[in-house]
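Worked Example 4.2. Read the sequence first, then its structure tokens.
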Amino acid sequence: MHEQGVAVPLDMRLRFGRAAVQVMADRVGADILHIKGDAVDPSLRSHRVGTDVDILVRPADVDRLDRAIREEGWRLYSTFTMGSPFGHAQTYLHESWGYLDLHRSFPGIRLDPASAFELLGRDGGVIDEVGVSCRVPGIDAQAVILLLNAARDVGGGPADVERLWNDASPDDREKRSRLADDLRARVALAAATGDLEHYRGEPEYTLWKAISEGGPRSAEWWGRVRAASTLREAVALVFRAPWVNVERLTHELGRTPTRTEVMREFFRRQRRAAAEVRAWVRASGR
């Protein structure tokens, strides 16, 4: 007689996955904040339900938590280096609990990650996930995180901006604005709320213009170079930009790509990048 598998409902899978991550963090002494998805306060939450667990980790604790996660059977799905141009998150996959995004920073926040973690955790609270206590940012910090995320979410972001900014009270907007300033996230917030043109002279302008309007990845990379804090960071981005994202190509193919496939993708990326930049520059008048 064969046993029939039973699918775990998404909301329960997320709750147990979140609890499992918190237990691991407690065991190794890693300080984390649960962000986005079902960790968001109900007063801020949209009708959309997240499909993965997102955590922000104190930078000093990232390595120890990474080791603990892998030891507990989570498979590395994408790395900090290849996961996004921001290098902000690493993704894991567990056969029971699904996806986990481990954030060491958050896109749009230019305050150093350690200080940003402290600021986001200030005035925070605790939620219960199947009997496990999980720390979350304060209400205004949660709102700012969602707004910064909305700047990168061309499809669903406007609904979050409408709820968390346009429909918010003047007092709430002022508190969220001040927090964004403290986090050095003003330009990213402006990209979400429609005020980006007021920051046209800022180094981050080109980056958030491309991201918030759905520009090509090549324009996004150029924006990253222009927004780099140091010459060394800018040079590193220039060298990294042409790399083939082997992780993404592996997921697309469902197997490890051959050397020939990687080289073919490399030259395809260069042709596409050149065409994208030309079209985007013409369209935006740059």
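Now turn to a second chain, presented in exactly the same format:
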Amino acid sequence: MDAEARVTDLLRRADEVVKAAPARRAGSAVIGQVGELLAQARDALDGVADDERRRALAGQVSRRVGDLDQAQVATFTGPSPGVRRAPTRDVDPARVPPGQHLTAGFPVLHVGRMPDTPAADWRLTVTGLVAQRRRLSLDDLRALPAVTDRSDFHCVTAWSRLDNDWTGVRVRDVLDLAGAKPTATHAIVAGHPAYTANLDLEELRRDDALVAWAHDGEPLAREHGGPLRLVVPTRYGWKSVKWVTEIRLLDHDVPGYWEERGYHDVADPFLEQRFR
């Protein structure tokens, strides 16, 4: 069985398990079984030689993974320990993108293990189409004009947390420090351990796009991206790279980790740009 046929077969099997799920009692077992089949399908994507076909199949896998994630986080509507309760009532409906539900807490989702690098050793590298490659410590970043900006956070798994107070520096100030070249149009942003997301510079230069070290007045918790994360409120949360380590400026768009796996390149939550 070639790679494309294997991916298609694994998707069919996952769909069959989901269809049979109402007749089964062990919901967690169903989620685990479907998750394993989808993980195998995602691994098999690497063997599909044709780029367009691989990305199309990746979109099918990611839609199903997204449905699975939504099933797991659907109950995350209450407060989270140690996190300020976010508003969920009497909210202007225009603030909530289509298909999203509000959570009072702050669910934790990420790829791979959290880093254990001490904050004093953390570095952010700005490279690519810049006048001078810069490697910045947290102290270097704090020497720039600090801001606290309130914005809403929208996760692709269909939850939104309103009124987050992020403290950090504007991304555009970091880019200006490195001397972003006029030819730069996009960035690929990397985070620990081997995660990337693609963004256009227009979004990164907005007032509310930050490199943040604090959330709601407290140092950014490790599970939420501490000691340093990217915050891009106009895009789904996977673009707000946790544990950010590099911003590389480019003159073209390059898909990141999830984009290569079928997620949308732009990711505007109000347009429901979840998957390709």
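Notes for the reader: The chain has a mean pLDDT of 89. The helical segments are 3-20, 27-44, 51-73, 138-142, 171-178, 201-204.
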